[in-house]
Amino acid sequence: MTFNQERFDKLIQKLEVFANKQPHLYKLHVAFLATLGYAYIFLVLAVTLTLLVNIIFLIVNTQSISNLSLTGLLFLLTLAFVLLRSLWVSFPPLTGLPLQPKDVPNLYSLINEISLKLQAPRFHHILLTNNFNASVVQRPRLGLLGWQQNYLIVGLPLMLALPPEQFRAVLAHELGHLSGNHSRFSGWIYRQRETWYRIVTGLRQSGHEILSLVFQLFLIWYIPFFNAYSFVLARMNEYEADRCAVDLTRKQNTAKALINTKVKARFLEIYFWSSIYKQLETEIEPPKMTYMAMQQALSQTLNQEITSAYLIEALTEKTTNTDTHPCLKDRLKALGYIPDFQQEAAIFSGMEISARQEFLGDKLEKFIDYFS
Question: Residue 368 CB: number of other CB atoms within 10 A?
Fold first, then answer.
């Protein structure tokens, strides 16, 4: 039901050219494909229910039921159940430490300021996690009917690693995904993909080969195209979100945030966490002050030789079709920012004040203890 990687890559290249030349027309094509998928589901459902009504009407009129009628009735009921169940797309609740306005007023003030400027919807939940990342998630309460719950997820390590102005650029990027109705449209596309996944899973679990035949020919054609079109759309949204960050925080801060997060994520992965794992080989008890140690490590000036090596690695990476996020080099190029290694070294110097101090205030030690 999927293209091989070579065919997928070629299709992506063609779609990217089309999307860059005529973005509005391209989005109309994506919307058409998504609608076509729903149309097929409801067409099959309508035919199924019509046949069900006819069989029931026939049984009532003849006041008898044959083996053929019973088989047809069970088949159609199974198909209708699989289709209806697939249309209710549920998402598991998100996990993290809930942040309340009274605990982190500066962080809420920043988020409200950015949301207002980008005309993004308000957040119902803000969660602090132990990931080196920030993201926005919309969780529909009523499946395909919508009624979204908006989540902002912020990683404590990210706040330990960035100064306030760069952290602001990261939040502006994430909230940029919610501005201009990006989230509604992209969320609808995501739920469409989830619906098809559940249909395929339901058909396989039903054990009825005839049920699979109803969708097989359509799926062989539809799914590869829909995956490719939605993939290019997701990548376009990343560039658009970067432009939102530039509008709110300036090009320099946005570019430095991209560089800083890339290098310090590498630093934590290779240097910091590897040293923690080595402790586990010799100590009986797990480290109890891990995030305090992380705060100290990220507050100091990082070794220039190490950061330069990590930055060179990051800039030599290429954008591939295994991830919707463009590589660092392409994102900086889209911003019109040319990295200078001597200037970038200042990014990794010790911070006088970090995002953790600016936006978590006196609750910082509590959060560090919690995650440690």
Answer: 20
Question: What value does the mean pLDDT take over residues 294-321?
Answer: 92
Residue type, 177: H
Do 138 and 183 form a contact (C-beta atoms < 8 A)?
yes
- Please tell me the distance from the alpha carbon of residue 258 to that of residue 323, in angstroms, as a whole number: 17
In the predicted structure, residue 1 carries a pLDDT above the cut 50: no
Cβ neighbours for 206, distance < 8 A, ≥ 6 positions apart: 78, 82
Residues 6+ apart with CB under 8 A from 289: 372
pTM for this one? 0.84
Residue with tokens 């979204």: 148
CB 197 within 8 A of CB 335: no
How far is Cα 179 from Cα 171, in angstroms, rounded to an integer? Answer: 12
Predicted local distance difference test score (pLDDT) of residue 178: 85
Instruction: Give the bridge partners for 149, in sequence order.
Output: 139
pLDDT tens per residue across span 225-268: 888 898 998 898 899 899 999 999 999 999 999 999 999 999 99
Please state, in angstroms and as integers, the Cα–Cα distance from residue 207 to each residue in 71, 78, 211, 214, 215, following that order.
Answer: 15, 10, 8, 14, 14
What is the DSSP-derived secondary structure letter of residue 131? S
Rounded to whole angstroms, how far apart are CA atoms 159 and 155? Answer: 7
Separation between Cα atoms, residue 24 and residue 59, nearest integer Å = 52
Per the CB < 8 A criterion, the answer to whether 211 and 203 are in contact is yes
Contact yes or no for 134/155 (Cβ under 8 A): yes
Residue pLDDT, tens place only, 67-109: 888 888 888 888 788 777 766 666 677 899 999 999 999 999 9
Max Cα–Cα distance, the chain, nearest Å = 88
